[in-house]
Hints:
Elements (H helix, E strand, L loop, with lengths): L2 H18 L3 H13 L3 H13 L4 H13 L3 H13 L3 H13 L3 H8 L6 H8 L1
Amino acid sequence: MNKNYQNSQVTYLKYLELDEAGDSISARHFLEIAVYQGNDMAMHALAYELYNNEENVDEALKLYRKAAKNGLTVSMLNLARHYEKISNLKQYFFWLKKAASLGDEQAIKEILNPFPFNKELRKRHKN
């Protein structure tokens, strides 16, 4: 295990500890350091915050993509959700298939029954 990875893990764990303790300002600081250190889970966590708080959706998508390209299937699923939400079926299926190819059970289920969150797309897909 390389030293940078170990450092990013320690930093990410410190983020989780501070977040759990309710110290959101310090937690965010450690989260951003872990992202800078290249921690995929930190990238995903920051992307989730940015996306769900609508702070910076473009930056969130960049972080999701970077974590996804490193093999983090939960980021792939969140990208698929985003593309489902904006009705970009090509990208929706791209990220869904990528996660499924890595064995993600949720992605596999969703491929069998697509568009779980977008009722309009699900209706169009069935016709």
